[in-house]
Amino acid sequence: MLSEWLTRLRFLFFRKAPGDLDAELAFHLEEQARANEAAGMDAAEARRQAGIAFGGVQRARGQSYAARPGYRLEMLGQDVRYALRGFRRNPVLTLAVVVTLMLGIGATTAVFSVVDRILFRALPYGHADRLVSLGIVHSLETQEFVMGNFYSDWRANQKPFEAVTSESTGPWECDLTERSPAQLSCEAVEGNLLPTFGVAPILGRNFLQEESRVGGPNVALITYGMWLNRFGLDKGILNQTINIDGQPVRVVGVLPKDFEMPRLESADVLRPFQVDPIADHKANGGYGSPRRIFALLKPGVTVEQARQEMEPLFQESLKQVPADIRQQMHLMVRTLRDKQMQDVRLTAWVLFGAVLAVLLIACANVASLLMARGAARRRELAVRSVLGASRARLMAQAMTEALLLAMSGAFAGCLLAEGLLRLFVSIAPPGIPYLSQVHLDLRMVGFTGLVSVTCGLLFGLAPALEKPSAEILAGRSANPAGSVTSASVRQWLVVAQIAASLVLLTGAMLLVRSFWKMEHEQLGIRADSTLTASVTLGSYNYGSAQKRMAFFDALEKRLRFGPGVIDVAVSDSVPPEDFHNGGQRMEDLVVEGRPRVRESTGELVRFRRVSPEYFRTLDIPIVRGAGFTEAERSSPDAVLILSRTLAERLFPGENAVGKRMQLGGSDTNAPWYTVMGVAADVKNGGLTGEQLPEYYRLRRDKAEDWECCGSWGRSGVVILRSSLPAEVLAPWIRTQVAAIDPALSVDVATMRQRVGKLADGPRFQTLLVGFFAVTGLVLAVIGLYGVISFLVAQRTQEIGVRMALGSTRSGILWLVCGRSLRLILWGTGVGLAAALMVSRVLGSMLYGVGSRDPLSFAAVTLVLIAVALLATLIPARSAARVDPMVALRCE
Amino acid sequence: MATSTDLLQGTLDLLILKTLALEPMHGWGIALRIQQVSKEALQIGQGSLYPALHRLEYKGWIKAEWGASDNNRKAKFYSLTRTGKKQLEAELEDWDRIAGAIALVLKGA
């Protein structure tokens, strides 16, 4: 074996002398001739017979040469040189193909690399495919949850799942009370969560049975991130005790590096769910404390089957719920992936669709460009074939060319994709999962490259496969039957390209219009020179409402006398963000003198608890009655301000001011509030959400006004209006917070930044789809230009004849433009039909624009037609400038 | 060359190796020998002999040297190398096995 290779190597470098073979063959022929002569032939006949017996000398020579090691490599080198020479002779076409491939491969790879993580990547759990999230959804809580009592029933009686597990509705802020205190985020999970998910700690162990009981040992698992940042990956952390919320907690394990919480919530510490089943049975109004539950499907059970099997259990549980709430509750079972992705999924699919459209356009382009090249070289190929080039040889040549183009395109595409990815990551809103982990997906580079090259090869190889006919050789037929079909295929390709880019453009246009409307939305608040500082207090250090009130009081006092500060207000949240506690049901608002409503209408009301200056700081006008006053802060009376919408809803045609209301639903002992005034409406459902009726309660200097709803009661926002720029004020605010409690983290942002952040998602989508649309348009225009100029070149002779027979220049112009106009109209027609179907998908992403917005459709159609016509005008003009004498003589 | 066109490539290689096992020989001689030994039944396409010889040479199974022919003309003589001999043995074994198997099948059928 080795010696064989050595021999090959030797022959690779030391070629035989060129005359060697000739001498050898000559000897053979002479010997044969001599033998023939000896058999009695005359000399000439003997030589002739020897030649016949030998067969093709030239072929034998060629085949002997081809047996040489390295022959293939040599041929490849020859093909490459030949191809490069061809490219140099036709730089426009070469550049067009490479640019097409670059845009196609670059854009699709970049976006696919992002989308892939969202749509197709494997979740970092051992049982990723079988994990589901299930629970009850309600108009106030659209993320599935389950009450503790329901949960124990479900877990005991369920059939479709191999295992069921749960976590708390956290995470909650917890304080690491050690040498360097810090605010962490903690989450409680059931002991079987990790095994159910198929995850094992990389260090230490999972929770034990006894640790999940009330009164069991205090233990915790920490995340890899915390292990790295806080303990420097020190293995000695195992079984060490850390202080969380003032309690010693033993670290029993470290989670894997790629572990993610089931709801992608950020948690640093996992604690075992320590629930006393009997006490919990009575908790939360007799329903048990709420949880988020996850389950592992038995093999072969689908999500839908599981939902159907859980439905009876759900219906059974519902019987414990009052009828007016019951009707708004539904059972939801969905895969964990669906739950994690939420509405990002739609964006991802839209982008994916855009990728496919661009890929289609790119493929059509490469195909039609290579076909044009092939058609122009039919004669050359025919000549080479007749001179003895085998079909395989011609195909190898065509393939070498296609691969060369593909490789340079793919290389340029990789560079483009890398740049685009960096751009995406820098402009993407924070809500998109995994974006920070995105990297260039080489599989995708390969895939798009392969697809485009296959398209190219398919059409580029056709002329190489054709049997050379005498007609082509003679050059008599300028328009043989074969190229007519290829021309019509190319025309259909152009129609498809125009259609695809129309779909892309309409999608982009709709998103742009929607984004524009969103940006110019009236917020109802002042966004300029307003600064917000959000703080969430820990439950340990700020366990009592008294402490929380004291903190915000102190902060407000400190900030009031800051440099340039005009107004300071405290609230629990700021519009236009979607208030995270969902709101309250309309029927829970009880007006004095009216019967309590039991029937639920499903309407929601938002509420905020604010300090008196809130309205002045945000410039929300009080349209009726009066705002809150400083004096009311210390008064025993509970007061209320309604939004205009709420006032009109509750008191149509009446004056709301002075009316008294209860806010507690069926609780007849709830305190009475007096309506002080009516404020103008503000956007309060995010930028795109529905504007909900809203009421404001005054935050008085009483601890009860700081008591609310779990962790939401512990977060607050201080709103400042100042004459100083934000850059100066922000660090100062941080020092003020740190002066009260150095362990707290505070999020300072201008109102503009907060609003802008809400538009991040739409901006990202719009930019990406817009980018694709422009890419698609450019590609389609290149394709159209290529096809029309090819048609013109083919018909030069015909045009010459027409002109000689008296056709005018404008007549020729019309002839060519008419041809392309037909293609354009076909393309727009097909594209419009497709766009009308596709744009419905965008419906939920649009704001203030219908998915069939006629203005967008019309504008896009016009732009496309105009650009496409422009692309045909160049070849059309050169057609009109054809000199009839030259054209007639050229063949 | 009418009757001989369908010689399998591997078969031709085997015939060449077997012929050269006797003594070094030039191309013309190889063609002649195969023809004679096979009693004219196997007539090698003379044209395809040379690519085969070159292929074998490149593989290192045979080596070529210029020498003088019977009538004192300059000719290229091919001879087996060590690997060539081993290769011949291996190929003969293969051939026997395959031929035996085919004979079995033909008889059985």
Give an overview of the whole structure.
- The complex is a heterodimer of chains A (891) and B (109).
- Chain A is an alpha+beta fold and 891 residues long.
- In chain A, strands 15, 16, 17, 18, 19, 20, 21 and 22 form an eight-stranded mixed β-sheet that branches. In chain A, strands 4, 5, 6, 7, 8, 9 and 10 form a seven-stranded mixed β-sheet that branches. In chain A, strands 1, 2, 3, 11 and 12 form a five-stranded antiparallel β-sheet that branches.
- In chain A, a hairpin with a 5-residue loop joins strand 4 and strand 5.
- Mean pLDDT of chain A is 81; it is low at 476-482.
- By secondary structure, chain B is α+β, with helices and mostly antiparallel strands.
- Chain B is 61% helix and 15% strand.
- Chain B contains four helices and three strands, in the order αβααββα.
- A three-stranded antiparallel β-sheet of chain B has the order 1-3-2.
- In chain B, helix 1 packs across helix 3 (46-59) and helix 1 packs across helix 4.
- The longest helix of chain B has 27 residues, at 82-108.
- Chains A and B meet through helix 1, helix 2 and helix 4 of A and helix 2, helix 3 and strand 3 of B.
Topology readout:
The complex is a heterodimer of chains A (891) and B (109).
Chain A: H1 2-13, H2 18-38, H3 43-54, H4 57-66, H5 71-89, H6 91-119, E1 131-138, E2 141-145, H7 148-157, E3 161-167, E4 172-176, E5 182-189, H8 193-197, E6 203-204, E7 219-222, H9 224-231, E8 241-244, E9 247-254, E10 269-272, H10 277-286, E11 292-297, H11 303-318, H12 323-326, E12 330-335, H13 336-341, H14 344-376, H15 378-386, H16 391-427, H17 442-465, H18 470-474, H19 481-519, E13 530-536, H20 545-560, E14 565-571, E15 584-585, E16 590-591, E17 604-610, H21 614-618, E18 622-625, E19 639-643, H22 644-650, E20 660-662, E21 672-679, E22 694-698, E23 715-722, H23 726-740, E24 746-750, H24 751-758, H25 760-794, H26 796-804, H27 809-842, H28 854-880, H29 884-889
Parallel strand pairs in A: 5-10, 7-9, 17-22, 19-21
Antiparallel strand pairs in A: 1-2, 1-11, 1-12, 3-11, 4-5, 6-9, 7-10, 8-9, 13-23, 13-24, 14-23, 15-17, 16-20, 18-21, 19-22, 20-21
Helix pairs in contact in A: 2-3, 5-16, 6-14, 6-16, 6-17, 6-25, 7-11, 14-17, 14-19, 14-25, 16-17, 19-25, 19-27, 19-28, 20-23, 25-28, 27-28
Chain B: H1 9-22, E1 25-26, H2 27-37, H3 46-59, E2 62-68, E3 74-80, H4 82-108
Antiparallel strand pairs in B: 1-3, 2-3
Helix pairs in contact in B: 1-3, 1-4
